[in-house]
Amino acid sequence: MVTRREFIAGTALSASVASFGLVRLAPAAPPVLRLDAKPGTAHLLEAGQPETPIWGYNGRVPGTAIRTRQGEPFAADLHNSLPQPTTIHWHGIRNINAMDGVANLTQPAVPPGGTFAYRFTPPDAGTYWYHPHNRTWEQLARGLYGPFIVEERRPPPVDQDLVLVFDDWRIGDDGAIHEASLGNFHDLSHAGRLGNILTLNGAFAQDIPVKAGQRLRLRLISAANARIIAVRFTGHAPRVVALDGQPVEPFAPKNNLLSLAPAQRADLILDCAGDVGSSAPIQVETGGETLEIGKLIYHASERQRATVLSDAFHLPANPMPAELDHDAAVSIDLDMTGGAMAWFQSAEYRGKTYDVRTLAREHRKVWAFNGIAGMPEKPLARFAAGKTVHVRMKNRTAWPHAMHFHGHHVREISHSARKPLPHWRDTVFMARDEEITVAFRAHNPGKWMLHCHMLAHQAGGMSTWYEVG
Ligand code: C2O
Ligand code: CU
Questions:
Q1: Is 356 helix (H, G, I), strand (E, B) or coil?
Q2: What residue's CA is closest to ligand 1, atom 3?
Q3: Of 279, 274, 467, whose CA–CA distance to 384 is shortest?
Q4: What is the reported pLDDT for 416?
Q5: CB neighbours of residue 110 within 10 Å
Q6: Which residues in the chain land under pLDDT 50?
Q7: CA-closest candidate to residue 132, choices 94, 93, 86
Q8: pLDDT at residue 17 in the model
Q9: In the structure, which protein residues have their CB atom closer than 6 angstroms to any atom of ligand 1?
Q10: What is the pLDDT of residue 420?
């Protein structure tokens, strides 16, 4: 581990050597960020209510907000101070495979007391997040996650750049995380672990101070285990400028409601058109209810500028391989089956076929991809590097899902219900009975997971992997 002092000394040395122009220098090693996964407490409930014991990166929730820069090396050491093994997955980063953090696929889980050195250079700018990839259904529910922001080399100017992390917690009467229901069979086989407390940046209600005329860049992240939410900034008309980290042609969300399935992110540009001294509730719609989760609070007297900015805001494109060769594409099917109300008769698990009762009772698997429950020994498919891939996903279950591709962003190319959207995503929402075909160019070599990000579904069988190269 490089100490702050060694780091400064190293930088000074590089500079003096460089000034002689004698050697070509490797980029200075980045300072190493320490991420200690450990127990802590957080004030998740209303004022006057007790603090909640959580697990968090550096003991806090959300964990340390990481800001790094596109194309520059990043270094973090995970220290595991939890009572169980863990890893870190850098969700949405087109990472090198060895740094993807998937326990038992790209690295062994880090035991209690152990460490792991994560070293990589994020290729794309955007809004990402990090979380464990071992017992994720439990570790995420306990609070292990944090924002991972990759800044553009020249970020378009805004007055404030704010990260807004939404989470859904299941809290018992005692103010503690409801442990007895962690991983229970009902969550596993139905909608996943839905909570009873929504938080914004780890707080029950969050005031966001703004000034009239300001332009905000809001980076929304859903860290919910399973809940689907839709966010509204009342009295404001934000535009979406990126989804899952990747820039989009700016658009206004339908009905001014931005929906986020678990793990999805959106970057919004919000121009503060409210009056000096006013406030505007931030609302979340979920499960037929509307909840207030915070407020934009306008400064009592100061303005940023006389009127709101009128120029458009565009993010520079990321260097993602975006050309797809549909004529030469390889197509695969992904049949999603199982779960309550649409139980399969039988499925394969670790090479053996079981009837649904035995599989549920003995192995707690109730969902399957192409008839296989849980991580198969062989990949779902292998793709030659550079190939265009079509994945026809068919949700034959009675539940919605949030399908997450590691290593690649994918683009929807056909849809049973609406027009194709030209957006690159790493997590694709699928309603019950929906069919969506996505395409991507398999450019990133390695073993990549594909799973539902409703984490009880992932644990209950909705997990597979594909291999590139
Ligand atoms: Cu956000 Cu496989 O995970
Ligand atoms: Cu699911």
A1: helix
A2: 91
A3: 467
A4: 45
A5: 22
A6: 1-22, 416-418
A7: 86
A8: 35
A9: 89, 91, 131, 133, 263, 404, 406, 449, 451, 453
A10: 53
